[in-house]
């Protein structure tokens, strides 16, 4: 009988990693049936999506409450399917609070649970690691320091390596991108990466656009490019641009790595993109904004110094972070200006980014997690 897998990914980056996992898993056994939650990337690799995650991808406590009904409905759909058609393996990709609730439903039914992309409990609420250990059969982690953290807490853990080492590469040449996006390689190109969630767009994009206005005053020939995440539409972005019609800005629905490679500098929302941009070797500035109440609560819970993944991996601040009330357009614009004109400053950041790539290990992360999932599928002892 064919093996059945349910996979749950709740946002754009998780959707991408999950899709590459499924692709590698099907190379091991094409008969494995996969269903679950995700978006375009999982759909493209043939996963039967019971829920499209595009409308429930949020960050922050208040933001989650605003989407509670949709999130609860999605959870109910997946939980009902688990009860009626128990999978041989449940793979949970990031999106921790939602996915832990799914694990609580699956484990009593004898379903094996593999959690992929560790929740950042090492950054906040570290005591939760013991609760996590009771909900899963295996934690697959992306960073070497995470393996030590879970092992010390007696949680089953495997370091699989970061899939971005494989994934972060363009599939078009720079020249092809210049032509397709109608951009000049002789003029500076600034990337605006406001995130993949609607709430992020609402809070981050306006300040990036205001910063772009200031950048253009200092660099009149600057060109701006804004990639649209797979979980969003170009139509959703357009209203934010109506008061900035004189900016030379392209809104592009394409593989973000194609866009990154032609940028001289990038302004990015905090998240997976900070690591992707570092792996592509593009100088950048990180912007983090959530609902004020969410920030008030989370600030008191976080136990690490940095928010950007690139800085967390580097274990120091190599890319400037503009957080909450410090995310001011004039300061962000000044940082981008410095990255464009100060060659020593720019090169120092590029050198540190290379060290981050080295810390993430060799290629093969997606294949490693697929192999782990395959082994769990074929050891039917619960």
List the helices and strands and how they pair.
Layout: E1 4-9, H1 12-28, E2 33-38, H2 40-44, E3 48-52, H3 61-66, H4 68-84, E4 89-93, H5 96-106, E5 112-116, H6 129-135, E6 138-141, H7 144-152, E7 157-159, H8 164-167, H9 174-180, E8 189-193, H10 198-218, E9 223-227, H11 234-237, E10 249-252, H12 256-260, E11 265-269, H13 272-280, E12 284-288, H14 292-299, H15 309-314, E13 321-323, H16 329-341, H17 343-359, H18 365-377
Parallel strand pairs: 1-2, 1-4, 2-3, 4-5, 5-6, 6-7, 8-9, 8-11, 9-10, 11-12, 12-13
Helix pairs in contact: 1-18, 4-5, 10-16
Give your account of this protein's structure.
It is a single chain. The longest helix has 21 residues, at 198-218. The mean pLDDT is 88. With 382 residues, the protein is an alpha/beta fold. It is globular. It has 18 helices and 13 strands. The strands form two sheets. The protein has a seven-stranded parallel beta sheet with strand order 3-2-1-4-5-6-7, with helices on both faces. Strands 10-9-8-11-12-13 form a six-stranded parallel beta sheet, sandwiched between helices. The relative contact order is 0.13. It has two domains: 4-163 and 364-377, Glycogen Phosphorylase B (Rossmann fold); 174-359, Glycogen Phosphorylase B (Rossmann fold).
Overall geometry comes to: globular
**CATH-level-2 architecture of the largest domain:** 3-Layer(aba) Sandwich
Rg value: 21 Å
Number of distinct beta strands: 13
Overall mean pLDDT stands at: 88
Number of helices, counting only DSSP H or I runs of 4 residues or more: 18
Largest sheet, if any?
7 strands, parallel
Strand order of the largest sheet: 3-2-1-4-5-6-7
Structural class: alpha/beta
Question: According to CATH, what is the class of the largest domain?
Answer: Alpha Beta
CATH superfamily of the largest domain: Glycogen Phosphorylase B
Q: Classify the fold: give the CATH topology of the largest domain.
A: Rossmann fold
Strand content: 15-25%
Helix content: 40-55%
Total number of domains:
2
Distance between the termini: 18 Å
């Amino acid at each position: 009988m064919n093996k059945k897998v349910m996979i749950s990914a709740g946002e754009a980056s998780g959707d991408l990693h999950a899709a590459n996992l499924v692709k590698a898993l099907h190379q091991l056994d094409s008969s494995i049936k996969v269903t679950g939650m995700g978006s375009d990337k999982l759909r493209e690799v043939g996963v039967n999506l019971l829920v499209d995650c595009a409308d429930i991808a949020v960050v922050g406590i208040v933001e989650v409450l605003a989407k509670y009904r949709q999130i609860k409905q999605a959870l109910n759909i997946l939980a009902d399917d688990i009860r009626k058609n128990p999978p041989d393996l449940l793979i949970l990709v990031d999106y921790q609070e939602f996915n832990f609730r799914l694990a609580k439903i699956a484990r009593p039914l004898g379903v094996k649970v593999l959690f992929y992309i560790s929740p950042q409990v090492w950054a906040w609420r570290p005591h939760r690691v013991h609760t996590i250990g009771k909900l899963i059969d295996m934690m697959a982690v992306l960073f070497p320091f995470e393996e030590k953290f879970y092992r010390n807490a007696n949680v089953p853990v495997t370091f699989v390596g970061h899939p971005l080492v494989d994934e972060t590469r363009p599939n078009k040449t720079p020249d092809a991108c210049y032509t397709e996006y109608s951009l000049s390689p002789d003029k500076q190109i600034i990337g605006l990466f406001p995130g993949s969630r609607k709430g992020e767009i609402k809070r981050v994009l306006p300040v990036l656009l205001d910063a772009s206005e200031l950048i253009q005053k200092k660099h009149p020939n600057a060109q701006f490019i804004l990639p649209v995440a797979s979980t969003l539409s170009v139509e959703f972005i357009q209203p934010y641009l109506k008061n900035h019609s004189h900016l030379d800005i392209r809104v592009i629905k394409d593989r973000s790595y194609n866009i990154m490679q032609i940028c001289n500098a990038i302004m990015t929302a905090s998240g997976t993109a900070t690591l992707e941009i570092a792996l592509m070797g593009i100088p950048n500035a990180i912007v983090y904004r959530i609902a004020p109440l969410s920030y008030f609560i989370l600030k008191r819970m976080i136990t690490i110094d940095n928010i950007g993944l690139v800085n967390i991996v580097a274990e120091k601040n190599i890319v400037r972070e503009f957080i909450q009330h410090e995310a001011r357009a004039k300061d962000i614009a000044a940082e981008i200006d410095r990255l464009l004109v100060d060659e020593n400053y720019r090169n120092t950041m590029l050198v540190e980014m290379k060290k981050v790539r080295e810390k993430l290990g060799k290629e093969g992360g997606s294949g490693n997690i697929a192999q782990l999932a395959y082994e769990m599928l074929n050891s039917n002892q619960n």
